[in-house]
Amino acid sequence: GQNIDQPTEMTATEGAIVQINCTYQTSGFNGLFWYQQHAGEAPTFLSYNVLDGLEEKGRFSSFLSRSKGYSYLLLKELQMKDSASYLCAGMDSNYQLIWGAGTKLIIKP
Amino acid sequence: DAMVIQNPRYQVTQFGKPVTLSCSQTLNHNVMYWYQQKSSQAPKLLFHYYDKDFNNEADTPDNFQSRRPNTSFCFLDIRSPGLGDAAMYLCATSSGTGHPYEQYFGPGTRLTVT
């Protein structure tokens, strides 16, 4: 079966660094996406990885290991506005996204 | 700006009363998706269109129907809404060609069933 696992909730402090992990099982693999979703709003695209390694984009970085079926999203210099849910999604061989339930990130001052 | 638009943002309907949600896009994307998302859950794909080719997910209830009259517009019809259909309904688009197949989401329609 296809499955995405990520922690339900994490808490971090403003200005700190947090790493959100995701493990995936998909039928075929066409990449791994991270989306940010603020409460009551639509998901917005953060990152895409299809090759092993780290992709850096400003304060956010995403890592992929295909052999381990593992990805993480790294958020640096946390700001209060980063309080949101972070959704991990794997793209299968049919180019369909298999979504995780999201990790709710709570930022404390 | 190119975008995905959903109307209305909030919809209240009565139990069993048909309701239609709409989505339009100015991105000229080939693929359009409808997702259902309940609180603290993953988005659940209901259908998608690749151009006019309709793809229904196996576990999408018959109560849900969709129409795509042209490239820009897509509709979600709920024929007899039940209390369990209360959710956020998200429309998304993607170009369908070339990586990274990123999906662009509209703001969503929050459906309440009374």
Question: Would you kindly provide a written description of the structure presented here, covering whatever features stand out?
Answer:
Chain A has no helices and 11 strands. Chain A is 0% helix and 57% strand. In chain A, the strands form 2 sheets. In chain A, strands 2, 4, 5, 9, 10 and 11 form a 6-stranded mixed sheet that branches. In chain A, strands 1-3-8-7-6 form a 5-stranded antiparallel sheet, with no helix packed on it. Chain A has 109 residues and is an all-beta fold. Chain B is mainly beta. In chain B, 0% of the residues lie in helices and 51% in strands. Chain B is built from no helices and 11 strands. In chain B, strands 2, 4, 5, 6, 9, 10 and 11 form a 7-stranded mixed sheet that branches. The termini of chain B are far apart. The interface between A and B is medium-sized, with 24 and 20 residues.
Write the layout of secondary structure elements.
The complex is a heterodimer of chains A (109) and B (114).
Chain A: E1 3-5, E2 9-13, E3 18-25, E4 32-37, E5 44-49, E6 53-57, E7 60-65, E8 70-75, E9 84-91, E10 97-99, E11 103-108
Parallel strand pairs in A: 2-11
Antiparallel strand pairs in A: 1-3, 3-8, 4-5, 4-9, 6-7, 7-8, 9-10, 9-11
Chain B: E1 4-7, E2 10-13, E3 19-25, E4 31-37, E5 44-50, E6 53-56, E7 64-67, E8 73-78, E9 87-94, E10 104-105, E11 109-113
Parallel strand pairs in B: 2-11
Antiparallel strand pairs in B: 1-3, 3-8, 4-5, 4-9, 5-6, 7-8, 9-10, 9-11
